[in-house]
Amino acid sequence: MKTGRLEAFSDGVLAIVITIMVLELKVPEGSNFNTLSPLIPKFLSYVLSFVYLGIYWNNHHHLFQAIERVNGKVLWANLALLFTLSLIPFTTAWMGENHFDKNPVALYGINLLFCAITFLFLEKYAIKHEGIESKIGKALGNKNKEMYSIVIYVLGVILSFVFPILGIVCYALVAIIWLIPDPRIEKQLK
After folding, report:
1. Is the C or the N end of the chain the one with fewer CB within 10 Å?
2. Residues 6+ apart with CB under 8 A from 37
3. In this structure, are residues 156 and 166 in contact, taking their beta carbons and an 8 Å threshold?
4. What does the pLDDT read at residue 173?
5. What pLDDT, in 10s, does the model give residues 170-189?
């Protein structure tokens, strides 16, 4: 099977996820700028999650530029990724609503960790289907960036129970690591 339908479906799901997330930012009553201050934690949570969804969309796009065909395992791995990404609006809202309290920050980190793990599975099944000598197989032979990210997520979740702000710092650090599109794939596409 070609990748077109999978890509279109994934793009649609991510667009809906972002839309749901922004709808959680309720307009306050009153026109004074002071009425916006209670929204600051929600807005910061939204910004971080929007960046993450942008990163996943970007990397997903790059991944499927290097993949020529998909099979059932790749389709299911992609659905698992979309499932974990679809939980981001919930964990984002809970974290922002509770002003970065420990349990919501930890659950947010667990959500991000599962997003990373399901993306790894998607990569794994794509490489297995396309072959180790394929563009994607050659591009993603080195998984250091992914493994560092998972370690930082786990550290962030653990820290969240003691110092929630340090958990947020860990999650932001992973986002910074991934802000630049993965050059491994772009090199293979040239």
Report:
1. C
2. none
3. yes
4. 97
5. 999 999 999 976 678 877 77
Helix, strand or coil, per DSSP, at residue 24: coil
Domain boundaries, the chain: 4-189
Sign of the dihedral defined by the CA atoms of residues 96, 100, 103, 107, in that order = positive
Contact 121, 80 (CB under 8 A): yes
d(CA 68, CA 159): 41
Do residues 10 and 82 make contact, with C-beta atoms less than 8 angstroms apart?
A: yes
Contact 18, 50 (CB under 8 A): yes
First to last CA, the chain: 24
Q: Rounded to a whole number, what is the largest CA-CA distance in the chain?
A: 61
Taking alpha carbons only, the member of 52, 47, 45, 49 closest to residue 96 is 45
Angstrom distance (rounded) from CA 188 to CA 186: 5
Q: What is the mean pLDDT of each run of 10 residues along the chain (190 residues)?
A: 93 96 91 92 97 96 91 97 98 97 98 98 95 89 91 98 98 94 74
Which pLDDT score, from 0 to 100, does residue 123 have?
95
